[in-house]
Amino acid sequence: MTATAPDTLADGIAGSEASLRKFLHGLPGVDQVGADQRAAMLATRSIKTTAKEWALDLAIRMVDLTTLEGQDTPGKIRALAAKAKRPDPDDPTCPSVAALCVYPHLVPVAAAELKGSGVHLASVATGFPSGQVPLDVKIADTKAAVTAGADEIDMVIDRGAFLSGRYLEVQEQIQAVKQAAGAAHLKVILETGELATYDNVRRASWLAMLAGADVIKTSTGKVQPAATLPVTLIMLEAVRDFRDQTGRQIGVKTAGGIRAAKDAIRYLVLAKETAGEDWLDPDWFRFGASTLLNDLLMQRAKMRTGRYSGPDYFTLD
Predict the structure, then answer these.
(1) From residue 84, how far is each of 64, 99, 231, 245 by CA, in Å?
(2) Burial class (CB in 10 A: 0-12, 13-18, 19+), 144
(3) In sequence order, which residues have a C-beta less than 8 Å from that of residue 35 and are 6 or more positions away?
(4) Angle at the Cα of 97 (from 294 to 214), degrees rounded to 5?
(5) Active-site residue among 64, 241, 253, 263?
């Protein structure tokens, strides 16, 4: 397929609700049975010991270590920042995670702890997790987080607007937040558990990418179902096809409910087999998680020492 510049594709359908609707509803429909079956088939793939060691380290490097609770405190953020930098203090060969993800008001605390570490600092903004706040509040939220030190912004789309068919409104909000984020990478959360159909997941993925998202993300982790293999498959197909058409590569972040190392490896297999090896990199694939990191560390320690450490061996998040 002939590559089309991203701006050319976006410009061709911009500025009109009718043209945007025509494009999104003209996307190929998702074969729900086929998507479920392919995701289930890929989940049965096994990998050899040496590949598993590599996969565990890669998964750790892809983790956005996340805490988004009402009881979050500066002390908790400092502890998580230390863990993000050195997930296993007893093993200097263990890689750092990709990022630490916190609420906007705790960004200054995290920024001070992560400075110079190479670990990214992400902040949920734009009225997380509902997205039901005025646009000027979303923009102010984003600018404040970036000014405080966040270099990644996780925004939530207005699912009410999307499900009502107000696609142009959603697109313009993403574009405004992207502009407010400046040089920070923008991850757009679709909240797939509220989108009802796989076709909507595909449309929302394309809408976010056309609006300038650097990453499309499954979920806030506050709504069930959150991340699932079939939904992630559809999003990976979308970023693959988007790059084929535009030449621009978009990342995918899967978040919510991924707690075991074996599940993380299934997502890595899914990414490789669906989008390709280019996505097997923390710049292009992430896990939004808290407890997942502990299981990855336990499995890694077992492969290194031959002994299985209990969950209390690593700090609880």
Answers:
(1) 9, 7, 28, 36
(2) middle
(3) 198, 230, 233, 234
(4) 125
(5) 253
Domains (range + CATH), the chain: 6-305 (3.20.20.70)
Known active-site residue 115: no
154 catalytically annotated: yes
Is residue 217 annotated as part of the catalytic site, yes or no?
Answer: yes
Catalytic site residue from 151, 154, 214, 241: 154
Identify the DSSP state of 249. Answer: -
Return all residues near 15 (Cβ < 8 A) that are at least 6 apart: none
Q: What is the pLDDT along the chain (317 residues), one digit of tens a residue?
A: 334 455 667 666 766 899 999 999 999 999 999 999 999 999 998 787 789 999 999 999 999 999 999 999 999 999 999 999 999 998 999 999 999 999 999 999 999 999 999 999 999 988 899 888 999 999 999 999 999 999 999 999 999 999 999 999 999 999 999 999 999 999 999 999 999 999 999 999 999 999 999 999 999 989 888 899 999 999 999 999 999 999 999 999 999 989 999 999 999 999 999 999 999 999 999 999 989 999 999 999 988 777 666 555 555 55
pTM above 0.90, yes or no: yes
